[in-house]
Design brief:
The complex is a heterodimer of chains A (126) and B (154). Chain A is of the alpha+beta class and 126 residues long. Helix content of chain A is 27%, strand content 37%. In chain A, β2 and β3 form a beta hairpin. In chain A, 34% of the residues are buried. The complex binds protoporphyrin IX containing FE (HEM). Chain A: It comes from Acuticoccus mangrovi. Chain A: InterPro entries: DUF6152, TAT_signal.
Chain lengths: 126, 154
Amino acid sequence: MTMTRRTTLATALATGLGLVLATPALAHHGWAWTTGGNIVLTGIIRSVSLGNPHGVLEVDAEGELWTVEVGQPWRNARAGLVDGDLAEGVEVTIEGEPSADPDERLMKAERITIAGKVYELYPARS
Amino acid sequence: MEGLLAALEGSGLATWARGARWGYAALSGAHVLGIALLVGAMVPLNLVRLGLGRVPQEPIARVLVPAAGVGLALAAATGAVLFAVRASEYAALAVVQAKLILVALGTASALVLHAAYGWFMERAGARRRAIHAGVSLVLWLMVLALGRLIAFVG
Ligand code: HEM
């Protein structure tokens, strides 16, 4: 937890830089490390299952299918997401923590960007 | 099986719990209260039956056996709703399968033993009580550990 917080804090501080650095790599892989140890993934939502204990998206990033954990209903709502924002076919950019083994293609979203609008799932950390 | 799991997920209670904020918090809180009563009763009772403290077992059993029973009933009732929220995902997890098998075994053996030896095991000898106490101690602590693991393997 402490580790995660620290990582996240570092990520937050470096986000601007991280996103810039990540962009070229994204063109080839669909995802890239940020400087803080998080990753940024861009792709198309293929399936959505929202609700407790947390929501789950499947995101197709350049042909790789990633499982993305998003928030519970209240966390998504607090971030400003409304019904229909997270829907099949929508292009999303997700920043967050990947599973220790990136080959698992599993990540936990901390920040979601849809059509240029940023939704913070953990505003207190950023 | 898949049909049953889908029906559980589609049930009114599961749909409500999937979307509820404080309702879901209360539900998992009640699950924890059930666990606390069950494990919090079984650990001292079983240790006493294994010889800890050399205190009379019967009066202790009269308090702790009902506490464990209420705790198990609460944990099972709330656990069933928690399970229904994501039935097919949970059913696919080995940790959940192992936990449910152990809960079933523990519940069944408790019912059989109490039917045979009385609610407070008063008709069993000290040796038999100690053996079952050892098994029960390990079993419920394993269920506790498996339950806590669910959030870390899903
Ligand atoms: C029929 C009985 C039961 C069912 C169907 C059940 C089901 C569940 C489910 C679905 C969860 C939520 C998992 C998650 O997504 O984090 C859970 C949590 C948990 N369960 Fe059970 N459970 C049952 C009985 C028990 C018992 C008897 C114990 C303990 C002796 C127990 C210990 C736990 C623990 C420690 C958690 C984690 C609680 C938390 O992190 O808030 N469960 N259970």
